[in-house]
Design a protein that fits this description.
It contains 8 helices and 5 strands. The chain is an alpha/beta fold. Strands 2-3-1-4-5 form a 5-stranded parallel β-sheet, sandwiched between helices. Helix 1 packs across helix 8 and helix 4 runs antiparallel to helix 5. The longest helix is centred in the middle third of the chain and has 25 residues. The two termini are 12 Å apart.
């Protein structure tokens, strides 16, 4: 089997940048790597992503949001993640089930047991081998995220960035609570540092866990 690494954190924590750098480094070392993201990762899930992250869909109710994430994830796991792991590849995923618990459970205050059940339905027994949580203060993360969005002319995907600071504080608290509950899987890193400083600690965390043949 392969090795499944997920990158988690609030908006603007730097996880996407770090994931790309990790992928490049691992490929240079000769590892077979698959880079993917949630929501999305395959055509059907990408179509659902367009609905979920479009700020024009502000009327979406939390339960609809939750069910759409579960649907996208089920397709993504079946079509991309599970086959890649079965082929012995390293899968690097930008967000996974922990984001649903943090955003829809802690952020939206939906029932967390229901979310766990939906996650289980979508992924079966699949679980990340390692989850890197890039933590940073909400104001720093949102500031970065809004700067990034301001540079885009289209596909801004800003529905969550428009939520209140209190919402994002609850999401951050949710991620940290998940990390406390599963210390054997999570590594919490300081995402407020520079890209280069963060890359160093991310690389060290992965090197300490990644199986070597």
């Amino acid at each position: 089997m392969g090795f499944f690494i997920t990158f988690e954190g609030i908006e603007g924590c730097g996880k996407t940048t770090q994931l790309r750098r990790v992928a490049t480094a691992l490929e240079k070392q000769g590892f077979p790597v698959v880079v993917t993201r949630e929501p999305g990762g395959c055509p059907i899930a990408d179509a659902i992503r367009g609905i979920l992250l479009d700020a024009a869909n502000g009327a979406m109710v939390p339960t609809t949001e939750l069910l759409l994430y579960a649907a996208a994830r089920a397709q993504h796991v079946a079509e991309v993640i599970a086959p890649a792991l079965a082929a012995g590849k390293i899968v690097l995923c930008d967000r996974f089930t922990d984001s649903t618990i943090a955003y829809q459970g802690y952020g939206r205050n939906l029932d967390r047991q229901m979310i766990q059940q939906l996650n289980a339905l979508a992924v079966d027994t699949l679980k990340p081998n390692l989850t890197l949580l890039l933590d940073c203060p909400v104001k720093i993360g949102l500031g970065r995220a809004m700067q990034r969005i301001a540079m885009l002319e289209q596909n801004k995907e800003e529905r969550f960035e428009q939520e209140s600071l209190l919402f994002h504080e609850r999401v951050r608290d949710g991620f940290l609570a998940l990390a406390v509950a599963e210390p054997e899987r999570f590594v919490v890193l300081d995402g407020s540092r520079t890209v280069e400083e963060t890359e160093t600690v991310v690389t060290e965390a992965i090197a300490a866990r990644l199986p070597r043949s």
